[in-house]
Give the backbone structure.
Amino acid sequence: MTIKEFLFRYVGSQKKLILLSFVSVFVFLLANLSLPLLVGRSLNAIGSITESGTFLLAIDFHLLTIYLVVALVLSVLGVFFDFVFEYSIGILTQKIVKDIRDDVFSKICSVPIKTIDERKHGDLLQLEIQDVENIANGLFSVFKQLVQGILSILITIVLMFTVNWIMALGIIVLSPLSLFVSKFVATFSHRHFKSQSSLMSDLNALSLESIANLETLQTLQYQERSLADFARRDENLRREGKVAQFSASWTNPTTRFVNNTIYCVIGIAGIVMILYTPSYPILGMSLGGLTSFLSYTNEYTKPFNEISSVAAEFETALFSFRRIVDFLNGKDDVDDGKTVPEKTPSTISFEDVSFSYEPEQKLIEHFSQTIRKGEKVAIVGPTGAGKTTLINLLMRFYDPTKGTIAFDGIPSTDIPKKELRKNFGMVLQDTWIFQGTILENVRYANPESSDEEVKKACEEAHADSFIKTLPHGYETIVSAKSGLSEGERQLLTIARVLLRKPEIVILDEATSNVDTRTEKLITDAFDRVMAGKTSIVIAHRLSTIQEADTIFVLKDGNVIEKGRHVDLMVKHGFYYDLYTSQFR
């Protein structure tokens, strides 16, 4: 997405508000900038400079009254349309920012899992919150000053020419000096704002990580080291922010110095022209004209000062905009599947599958196995053997680098991900509970289910017993970090799967956080619900998979042993060593 496409997508969709903003600011500026002209005309209505250089008092009360009444009307009109402009710009900014925030969140939901795994979560949080807020501040400040400033300059130029065309040309010739100075300072400060944003992302990532793992941090007595790490990064951010703000702070003073110098030059030139106008009428400068022109000199240079005064906001917003554009331009999760299976797959085949997260680090190589409907398959092996990676490939969170995973002979890449995944239910070691009631959390697996169906699933998962002890039962509000123990949260995720009743269940140490008695009850419940269906179990506690139809023993991404528990124990191989090591 380029800047042009950005403007068309987000700004172009708000045509009515933009038109209202332009009309209101034009009327406001025209009314406001007409006042110096009326003041100058009023001064000329009082008297004029004679050829001898003296002031001749000759008051035209009729003309003076007209000028003053018109000035009063224009002042009231300017105040009203100034309010309309400020309000419309505020509403316009909020609508644009809302659209950007929606698109960023939508992109987060649509990027490949690999993108989420590779990026720091604090960085994603900064995109959604901090960067969008930076753009909001930049849009309101810069867009307001830019629109108002450009129109103010154009109207002022026209009015200056009506007062004195010679002086107006002089102002236009001198004004690029201010632009040159502000451009020079802005170029220097940009790289520091870029570095500041990067350091902010790192600090957000550290904060998010510390909050998410606060219990572990306190258990390991890591508070002091964590505080020291945070303080070090925060100090680096402060230093870089100080340099960025210091460099940006020079923009406004330097442009003001240039503009004040121009003002002095114009004032001196105007006085000289007043003195020589009686002798050289072509100069066309009067006392009232000089008064008006000096006011217009201020009005002409003011937009340059105001635009430069928001240089820091502009640089911050510009860098945040580029970060968001780069993220929105990233690739979406690929889903080219067109074939919708007519029935639940009866076989899942891994056909010479190879995969690695990094090209130089091989993980799974030439993996070939078939899982049939109704089988209870267990996958065991040491840490890093590729057990969870197989599940990632099966769910199409990642696709194989070589080989094919087929469902009834149909390659998984030919099946739409939504159609593929609706056959699965997953219970992982990591539980996911969101802010809401117990009913809402379990019903997440099947939004159409009734309260009775949800409660029945909770009973089958043996979660009903602890739910009844909660203050409001199934209507109790819980969240990821409060209201429930880890084991209770895991029981709710198991209840979700039982409510969903999928054809294929994946269990990754699904009962790791519950006691042995509850584990046995849940296993029995799964066996009843999953009768005739397929289950794939990743197990570390090998005592839980003794009844599996097939056990795959993985090591270095390859199946080195395969069979039932009894058969594998008889072989006294790698599985035997794994199993017996848990009882030593």
User: Anything to note?
Assistant: The chain is about 60% helix and 10% strand. The mean pLDDT is 81.
